[in-house]
Amino acid sequence: MPNLSNRRLARVFGIDIEFHWTWLIILYLFGYSLGVYFSHAYHWGLWVAWTTAIITTLLFFVSVVLHELAHSLAARRYGLPVHTITLFVFGGVSQLTREPEQAGAEFVIAIVGPLTSLVLGAICLGLAQLGPRHVPVIASLWWLGAVNLILAVFNLIPGFPLDGGRVLRAIIWSANRNFIAATHWATRIGKIVAVLFIFYGVVMFFRGQGINGLWIAFIGWFLLTAAEQSWRQTEVKSALEHFTVRDLSNPFFTTVPPDEPIESYFQQVTDSHNYRPSLVLTDGDELVGVIAPVDLRNAPRPQWPLLRVKDLMVPRARLATVTMDEGLMEALEKMALHGVSQLPVIDDGHVRGVIRRDRILELLQNALSQNGNKAG
Ligand SMILES: [Zn+2]
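Predict the joint structure of the above. Result:
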């Protein structure tokens, strides 16, 4: 999901809780159907029914966030920082910066989510025993208890990328010590589960349970796409596993001194037709920033005679760099994170070259087509 459309709701334990616009749809659907349900089931007045519905819906999303926080905090414990939790149309997702490197870590990170929902469900149902069912607080607790249990069970379905699929992958992984094969199995089962969802949803739809059927089919379609995507990611990861930045680092790159006037930098770019970013190096070959023609847009043309490269460059502090020994996957991830297509390669404090995304993708394409030939 593009981060641009996400809005921040809160910040807990240093983790941003964001929502994607699609979450507003589900928020509305839940609130609306709960309001209708409460007013019909318990014959409350409109005001009581809708207030209870709104509070219950909000509490439901608090429990979704708690489920995700459990994943995030467990991931952090294993040294995999999580910066954001995003709420979207199918619930919540914790954005792990990396995949866990050990089966044990993956198992714990995956299982704590459903366990949290299970405990929350049990607490709500336990508290619901304290009063008669038609009291708004008790009715709300019953509903929250049931929904959290459903959430726990749904997430434990053993199809990747659901929590249950991750648990399954961790188990296969610890048994055969092969992450790729384990992922292959878990995503394959995930696809089967997804197809069953779609099939069941379509059957329900034609049996007259229109909206529910469509919803289930839609969840199936989402699971199918997610399983395919995770598998492709793993394929990419394994194809790039044996290469480092050293294999593709290019020692030829354009440089420009920080005190170069912008006008003359612009002249060089237009004369050479080289629109790639240039490294800004001092006399002592120290990297102080990167400038690209696109950075010139940050200053209006009339100001150019007054400016130098160092005024418009992206300074070193905001630059991502790689070392020769870093993996190509890490380099790609850094590029994606910083929205750039090339990175300076630095070793022992000196610039050794640059690495470009198109070169990595070329190598990846070759590696993947060779894998394909082998499998075929
Ligand atoms: Zn989960």
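The chain has a mean pLDDT of 85.
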